[in-house]
Amino acid sequence: MKAFCVLGSPRQEGNTAKVLGWIEDELRSGDYAVVRLNLGNGVLSPCRECYACKKVADAPGCSQDDRGNSIFLEMMTSDLIVFASPIFCWGVSAQLKALLDRAFCLLKEDERLLLAGKRMALVATGAGAIKDNLDLLVPPYQTFAKYFKCKDVGTLLIPGCTTPDKLNGDVEKRARKFGRSLV
Ligand SMILES: Cc1cc2nc3c(=O)[nH]c(=O)nc-3n(C[C@H](O)[C@H](O)[C@H](O)COP(=O)(O)O)c2cc1C
């Protein structure tokens, strides 16, 4: 089984990276091959809305000359996709949003969905609370999963995240438990 874990934070050693790392450890222990994609800064540009992808039947077909097509092929060959992001202004990071928008290339003209049947999860960290803040990320994510005919297998929201060094043992326990639940 293969898990494709997308880190949407610009910080490679930030809160989200740490939480995702604990989840990935548990996936590996559960015999998943884990592929991590660090979206970092500028890996993917936003969707240009050119609709070129709609003319390509069985491949992503994005017209942009960057890593997009290879990323989408990786997603198509995974069993589990984990999206991890810090909350930025009550949404996912711009890095992850670009990937989600560009996943539009996997929706084909004849209503075939090239991600159909994948298991999907969301992990998010934020400095503030869950209520009226981190919880706002859940409906768009669940709508995305449903529209792409993926199976939502869970959401992990970690509030109160400021300095990565200060993430406590309780957060690690929650992340590992969540990771085990995905196996
Ligand atoms: C531009 C920006 C916007 C943010 N917006 C929010 C927000 O809307 N709600 C919140 O709780 N935290 C917000 N934060 C705090 C981060 O989400 C939080 O510290 C997160 O854990 C950072 O993750 P990282 O270390 O993986 O980058 C924001 C931080 C930045 C830099």
What does this structure look like?
- The protein has 183 residues and is an alpha/beta fold.
- It has one domain (2-182): Rossmann fold (3-Layer(aba) Sandwich).
- It has helices at 15-29, 68-76, 94-102, 138-147, 169-182; strands at residues 2-7, 33-38, 80-86, 119-125, 151-158.
- Strands 2-1-3-4-5 form a 5-stranded parallel beta sheet, with helices on both faces.
- Helix 1 (15-29) crosses helix 5.
- It is globular.
- The structure holds flavin mononucleotide.
- Flavin mononucleotide binds at residues 9, 11, 14-17, 86-90, 125-128, 133, 161-162, 164.
- Flavin mononucleotide (FMN) binds next to helix 1.
State which percent range the strand residues make up.
15-25%
- The number of strands is 5
Structural classification? alpha/beta
Alpha-carbon Rg, integer = 16 Å
CATH superfamily: Flavodoxin domain
Total number of helices = 5
Q: Give the number of domains.
A: 1
Give the helices and strands, then pairings.
Layout: E1 2-7, H1 15-29, E2 33-38, H2 68-76, E3 80-86, H3 94-102, E4 119-125, H4 138-147, E5 151-158, H5 169-182
Parallel strand pairs: 1-2, 1-3, 3-4, 4-5
This protein binds flavin mononucleotide.
Flavin mononucleotide binds next to helix 1.
Protein traits:
183 residues; alpha/beta; Rossmann fold; five-stranded parallel β-sheet; 5 strands; 31% helix; 19% strand; binds flavin mononucleotide
